[in-house]
Amino acid sequence: MEHDRVAALRAGEVPGHGRRPTYRLVAIPGDGIGPEVIAAGRRVLDAAASRFGFGLAWHELVVGGAAIDAYGVPIRDGDLDACREADAVYLGAVGGPRWDDPNAAVRPEQALFALRGGLELFANLRPVTVEPALVDASTLRPEVLHGVDVLIVRELTGGLYFGRPSEERQTPEGRVAVDTLWYTEQEIRRVVRLAFELARGRRKRLTSVDKANVLASSRLWRKVVDEVAPEFPDVAFEHRLVDATAMLLIREPAAFDVVVTENLFGDILSDEAAMLTGSLGMLPSASVGSRRTAHGLHGLYEPIHGSAPGIAGQDRANPIAAILSGAMLLRWSLGRGDAAEAIESAVRAALRDGFRTPDLARVGAGERDLRVLGTRAFTDAVVARLDGAADHEKEMAMASAAGLAASGGSGR
Ligand code: IPM
Ligand code: MG
Fold this sequence. Notes:
Layout: H1 2-10, E1 22-30, H2 34-52, E2 55-60, H3 65-71, H4 79-85, E3 88-93, H5 109-118, E4 123-129, H6 142-145, E5 149-155, E6 163-171, E7 174-180, H7 185-200, E8 205-210, H8 216-228, E9 236-241, H9 242-251, E10 258-261, H10 263-274, E11 286-292, E12 297-301, H11 320-332, H12 337-352, E13 355-356, E14 371-372, H13 375-386, H14 392-401
Parallel strand pairs: 1-2, 1-3, 3-12, 5-10, 8-9, 8-10, 13-14
Antiparallel strand pairs: 4-5, 4-11, 6-7, 11-12
Helix pairs in contact: 2-11, 2-12, 2-13, 7-8, 9-10, 11-12, 12-13
The structure holds 3-isopropylmalic acid and magnesium ion.
The site of 3-isopropylmalic acid has 6 residues, from helix 5.
């Protein structure tokens, strides 16, 4: 009997719930606004799970600056194994001024690199779409934003972030510092191939971004792209230099479909691209490699924004990037595209209904009634739409009572 129960649990069945599958997730809230946005995302994921009839078993880890404070290291032995054993990892953000001393031997960000490298998550997918309701929140003109739908595929376990040596040295002439941009052709090929595959499932256009007029690593990158391309005759690809790409992303962002690039270039271009959406607080990401679980790709999901220490603990953080990262987790690692879509629609509906977090409430934007909500209240609005229980009037009244309503009710 006991044996049967254990076997059933292993198969993902929860007693009393019949064949209700339960997925195992690791949550890493991290530092700054990380804990707030992960709490928001977990509420939305749990609501989606109960609506779609599956379970989420969470295991929380202390990683990053919080771990340096508690244990003296940014990530502990065993944490990586816990992440590996889970179906997916859900991370907020790490870092902050408290651990920013340039002479410090340990830094919170080292935990991120240990996770990305240790779990072999070589591709970081950063989708950039412009929500029509938020066109006014962007600093760019509306006509430039029409039809923007870019997927940035950032190489995540090589390039300048991982090349060795990476250090400062004392020489008789003074201090020197070195970082190394190093790529093997295998590292380039696997991420480029994934990018071609993703382009094949979209509008079939791929832009490979490099600095081949200067860097040897970029010239190897180009050769490998040219070698992989014949496997994907249905995908139109182009090479572009990173500086020109930075310019074009602002001039004509709708021209891009999938963009694949080196680690640091991808870091920079994705923050730039985030501004198309109105706020850095909008962009989710999925980091994946080649490992599969029973349900999908093993992966780590995190907003692209940082720990934003300046607004931490004030209930002001935009939880959308974290919530949408949760949707990506459902889709890519758990095979729950149904629940992922429901979450994405609920976020869209909350925005369409005029709810905003402070970062999205640009003064002078739009003619409609906007209500500026804190992290928790905005998450309430998303959960209510997920459950089909949104009561717009009541929400507006609550927002006003909380003193967070945009002045004058017009968003101006
Ligand atoms: C990101 C972040 C990180 C990175 C930082 C926090 C180390 O900017 O995920 O884009 O540079 O990869
Ligand atoms: Mg970044």
